[in-house]
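TL;DR need structure tokens for one chain.
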Amino acid sequence: MSASTSAHDKNAQQALLASYETLLSRVEYMHELANAEQWAELIDQRTSYVVLVEQLRELDTNVELDASAQQRKAELLERILEHDVEIRRRLVSRRDELGKLIEVSQRQRDLHRAYAPQQGPAVAYEADDPNSTRSS
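>> reply
TL;DR here they are.
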């Protein structure tokens, strides 16, 4: 293998690892957003995260890593996945919370629909009450 090929391979490995480090940085930020319950910003970041993962996947197929680079990639992936699991846990918790709020809202709406028609005649009945203080 020539020296220029070896240098090219080393540069490609460094670029790939730098991409994994960028991904780690992104997922750490997303984890902070989840902890701060900044859901809209988290969803926005998640979209660009998915794009970055796809770009990384393509780059990863074209670069062969030596043993030390493979070890570094494994470490980065482990940290990325740890954050990702925690973000997913927070999102599931938020989804469950929103589900409960939706259920409460639906129950309130159903109660309103069930009892609202009865309120109309009751008001009219009070108006016809002869004991009312209203003058005729």
